[in-house]
Amino acid sequence: MGNEQARFGIGVVGAGMGAKPHALALKALRDKVDVRGVWRRDRQELERFCSEYDLPAARSYEALLADPAVEAILIITPPNAREPLVAAAAAAGKHVLMEKPVERSVEAAERIVGICDAAGVTLGIIFQHRFRAASMALAEKVAGGTLGPLHAAQLLVPWWRSQEAYYDKPGRGTFAQDGGGVLITQAIHSLDLMLSLTGPVRAVTALSATTGLHRMETEDFVAGGMEFANGAVGGLMATTANFPGGPESLTLNFERASATLTGGNLTLNWMDGRSETIGEASLGGGGADPMAFPFDWHQAQIEDFILAVHQGRPPRSTGHTALNVHRLIDALIRSGREGRRVEVLQGG
Prior knowledge:
By secondary structure, the chain is of the alpha/beta class. It has two domains: 2-127, NAD(P)-binding Rossmann-like Domain (Rossmann fold), CATH 3.40.50.720; 129-288 and 318-343, Dihydrodipicolinate Reductase, domain 2. Helix content is 36%, strand content 24%. It has eleven helices and 14 strands. The protein has helices spanning 2-6, 20-28, 43-53, 61-66, 82-91, 106-119, 133-144, 163-167, 182-198, 296-311, 319-338; strands spanning 8-13, 33-39, 72-75, 95-99, 123-126, 150-158, 201-209, 221-228, 233-239, 249-254, 257-262, 265-270, 275-279, 342-343. The protein has a nine-stranded mixed sheet. Strand 12 and strand 13 form a beta hairpin. Helix 5 runs parallel beside helix 6 and helix 9 (182-198) packs across helix 11. The longest helix is centred in the C-terminal third of the chain and has 20 residues, at 319-338. 46% of the residues are buried. Mean pLDDT is 94; it is low at 1-5.
């Protein structure tokens, strides 16, 4: 009985494609997490999902919010459905852990963050790439200053999504549902990880396009230059038109070493001739199967969120940190559309 009371009560909203790693993570965390119910409008799909992952189905979203054992709501819906769900959760005093992106536009994302701030509830955003062992090892080294100042960065996201299996699904690659293309839907993970290691970008000059490989409303290719606030420079290329798809990579050139994150690997090449590798290679969802990655990164992020709530501290990935990547994406898209250098808005 005591152990049951000690578990963290979570209600889940959304049970589509993106819910699989969350479901597996929650099953692995059963000694710490009590899933009070899963809710989705499509009752048939909800029952199928709950049966597959042995999770309880909720009668309604209102029932989850009324459950005093629910401490937080995990929202895994498309971004166009988020704001009323978050507002209702915050009004009920429930903390919120939500899939990326926060919303489809910077303005809508700012509203959601403001709603949670005003209600005094914790808002965490799922950016599981921060929770890879290699990413955390590099973050520790950057924070410790052993690599020296950053001078240059290179980010590559050479992914593939097929027209038939991905973009032909209703709403995919549209502004109405997704808010954008490759940047806000796929590369946002790598961009968030980059910003967590480099600090903010001051300005960008970009090219964005939709290649002939896809029929979609939004962009499937973006390339650009970045000027970081600390004086470093960088370049990026992100696409879902690179068949058959490969792992994303981030290279940071510091004063004393270069660091490269490729999938789940960190390679450090020191200027004095030393080299070291941390982590292990893993699939990252860059190919035809968007869900081809382990669930342990999600598990680590859910655990961090629970600990943050218990300790009264911000989680590693918050609504406010997520706004940084939203503003960067907005600047990249505007630069590509307008053909000019664009400064990145910085939050207060």
